[in-house]
Every structure is written in structure tokens, then in C-alpha cells.
Amino acid sequence: SSGINAEYGFILRRGLTVKALREFIILQGSAKSVVTMEWDKLWSINKKIIDPIAPRFTGIGKADMVPVTITGAQESSKMCPKHPKNTEVGEKEVHYSGKVYLEGADAGEL
Q: Judging by DSSP bridges, how do beta strands 76-81 and 91-96 pair with one another?
């Protein structure tokens, strides 16, 4: 039983739901013939399950962030939904200011 728990932990740490894995296995069927399915199918099933309930956040890695100053920008904040189509997920506070951070590759395009 500890091996099974370890396998579930491995799946959950990578964002794959048990429900998606179960659906993927069922799609392959119980035939004796070999069924070939791409891994993309598994992740597509998983996305359909988590997309309606996953909150949306934005972030960039500290090692690659570049500060950019926007002249004339006003500092403010407002509450926004964590999910654009599902308000039940909750709200988050979004801050606006004249200093933003971009990933290095994006800053290089300026």
C-alpha cells in the first residue's frame, strides 16, 4: 500500500489528476491488442478536468526578471477573479504601478 501512495504522490506533484489517469486507461480499453495513444491525450484529458477550477496567477522566475519603468503610470490595485469564467474560485488583488518585471527574453524585445 505504501507503493501505491508513492505513485499517487508522483502523479499529483506533476499536476496530473487521478481522474484523468483513470479516464485515459478506460479510453485504451481492455482488449488484448496493443493500443497506441500519445501522451498528449492524457494531458488533454487532465486539462479538461482542471481548467474550469484552477485559479489563474502570473509569475516569472527571479533569476531571469528585468525591471522596467513605465513613465506616467499610476499606482493602484483592484480585486480581480482568480478564474475568468468561474467566480467561485475566488478573487485576488492585482497591483498596478510604474515598475513592472519582464522575463529577460521579453525585455530584450523592447
A: antiparallel
pTM, rounded to two decimals: 0.59
Task: Find out whether 108 and 83 touch, Cβ atoms under 8 Å.
Answer: no
Coil/strand/helix, residue 63: helix
In the chain, the amino acid numbered 39 is W
Q: How far apart are CA 91 and CA 78, in angstroms?
A: 10
How buried is 77 (Cβ within 10 angstroms: 0-12 exposed, 13-18 middle, 19+ buried)? exposed
Query: d(Cα 43, Cα 94) in Å, to the nearest integer?
Result: 30
pLDDT score recorded for residue 73 = 94
Distances (CA, A) of 110 to 25, 48, 82, 98, 106: 47, 35, 29, 16, 7
- Asked whether 89 and 81 are in contact (CB, 8 A), the reply is yes
Q: Is the pLDDT of residue 3 over 80?
A: no
- pLDDT tens digit string along 32-72? 777 788 888 989 999 999 999 999 888 888 999 999 999 99
